[in-house]
Amino acid sequence: MAKVFDSITPELQEFITAQHLFFVATAPLSPTGHVNLSPKGLDSFRILSANRVAYLDLTGSGNETSAHLLENGRITFLFCAFQGNPCILRLYGQGRVVLPAVREWAEL
């Protein structure tokens, strides 16, 4: 049975940081548009607080993800265990794109 958490607990943070691969999913509002689901990794995911995360889009164009975030902000991250006990963790949230020209880039 699925569990729902209001924030990222220390146990969930430990699970997330142990994963070498995660997935990012976004979708447009249009029912004819494509859901964008991409594998990510390379130590590019950070937990900034119990309710705030960030990742650096190192591979791929990121254009479809950026377009979806500009349109509706919806984003889902998925982490799954490929070793040890089975576990699938999804983080649902609102996202935004931060580009190098933006002041916040250096902070992140």
How is the topology of this model organized?
Blueprint: H1 10-18, E1 21-26, E2 36-41, E3 45-49, E4 52-55, H2 63-71, E5 74-80, E6 88-94, H3 104-107
Antiparallel strand pairs: 1-2, 1-5, 3-4, 5-6
Primary descriptors:
108 residues, alpha+beta, Pnp Oxidase, Chain A, four-stranded antiparallel sheet, two-stranded antiparallel ribbon, 3 helices, 32% strand
Number of helices: 3
Tell me which CATH architecture applies here: Roll
At the fold tier of CATH, the topology name is: Pnp Oxidase, Chain A
Strand content: 25-35%
Strand order in the largest sheet: 2-1-5-6
Structural account:
With 108 residues, the protein is α+β, with helices and mostly antiparallel strands. The protein has one domain: Electron Transport, Fmn-binding Protein, Chain A (Pnp Oxidase, Chain A, Roll). The chain is built from three helices and six strands. The protein has helices at residues 10-18, 63-71, 104-107; strands spanning 21-26, 36-41, 45-49, 52-55, 74-80, 88-94. The strands form two sheets. It has a four-stranded antiparallel β-sheet. Strands 3-4 form a two-stranded antiparallel sheet. Strand 3 (45-49) and strand 4 (52-55) form a beta hairpin. The longest helix has 9 residues, at 10-18.
